């Protein structure tokens, strides 16, 4: 084991870390937000004392700020529009409370001369969480419903690799040029994740005209992963573009569909991708039905504000995967996985 001590540089960016980004719209639920600053190398600056100003839009309000400094004379409560707090030992906190109407809260933290930080918090009604529907068509039965064990994973998402190689970028290890996937394997990696978009070649897609991360590019990359003796994690975005907690744009081909039609389209697309990969001998070992789905998939029907719709879409995708091979391991992929409040709330309500 080795240790290294580094001196941080001047702060350049405000970092916003919420305890959770989904709250009940009951006028009571709160999210505690940690505020720090980092230098140009991304290192947290432990002695920073910058004055941080806060701005909030949407169905919520700030109800308190603090920094743990026992000698501070700054107010813990401020007038609306005037919320601020200085960092103490590089940190401060903000408490945000939701109101009784659901929606999206936009929280922003800024300081003079620094890049600002921000986060979105979705508030959902208690009634929307209480609703639960089961579509028998997508229920798992028999082998598909059995628990699957996972082994140790050390992996990386290298979906961007074909784009880098198209630019002529080469990779080397200890001054010896090698295939990038082989380098990862040589250093103990046993999994590769590949993301897939529905139609990324669209003008508004992830890769206009070129279609990187479409089915064909995924098939080619899957062959390389399996040829290297590594396992494959497939990441369905269910979008033509990036999907994450801030955006889950519906694929253009699915716009205008009724909810039953949308579930079937998601099922059919998922099954087709899985079958094509299986037919060429590159069946994924693990699959994500959606990417960073804290706030849902395929908006608006699969928004977290409609947990029942979200769960039905995830069920349809899971059923499609299991229809091709019931032994495939399923991953429920959320952002902020290390945030206990966020993860527990999401999993409990799924």
Describe the structure.
- The protein has helices at residues 126-130, 161-166, 180-186, 215-227, 259-279, 307-324, 340-349, and strands spanning 13-18, 22-24, 30-38, 51-57, 60-66, 84-86, 92-98, 103-110, 117-124, 155-157, 172-173, 176-177, 191-196, 231-236, 286-289, 329-331.
- Strand 14, helix 5 (259-279) and strand 15 form a beta-alpha-beta unit.
- Helices cover 23% and strands 24% of the residues.
- It has 2 domains: 13-124, Immunoglobulin-like; 136-349, Glycosidases (TIM Barrel, Alpha-Beta Barrel).
- By secondary structure, it is α/β, with parallel strands linked by helices.
- The strands form 4 sheets. Strands 2-9-8-4-6 form a 5-stranded mixed β-sheet. The chain has a 5-stranded parallel β-sheet with strand order 10-13-14-15-16. A 4-stranded antiparallel β-sheet has the order 1-3-7-5, with no helix packed on it.
Topology summary:
Blueprint: E1 13-18, E2 22-24, E3 30-38, E4 51-57, E5 60-66, E6 84-86, E7 92-98, E8 103-110, E9 117-124, H1 126-130, E10 155-157, H2 161-166, E11 172-173, E12 176-177, H3 180-186, E13 191-196, H4 215-227, E14 231-236, H5 259-279, E15 286-289, H6 307-324, E16 329-331, H7 340-349
How many structural units, i.e. domains? 2
Distance between the termini: 41 Å
Tell me how many strands there are.
16
CATH architecture title of the largest domain: Alpha-Beta Barrel
Largest sheet: 5 strands, mixed
Helix content: 10-25%
> What name does CATH use for the topology of the largest domain?
TIM Barrel
Q: Compute the number of helices.
A: 7
Radius of gyration: 23 Å
Q: Decide which structural class fits the backbone.
A: alpha/beta
Class of the largest domain, according to the CATH hierarchy?
Answer: Alpha Beta
**Low-pLDDT ranges:** none
Strand order of the largest sheet: 2-9-8-4-6
Question: Secondary-structure element sequence?
Answer: EEEEEEEEEHEHEEHEHEHEHEH
Principal-axes geometry comes out as: globular
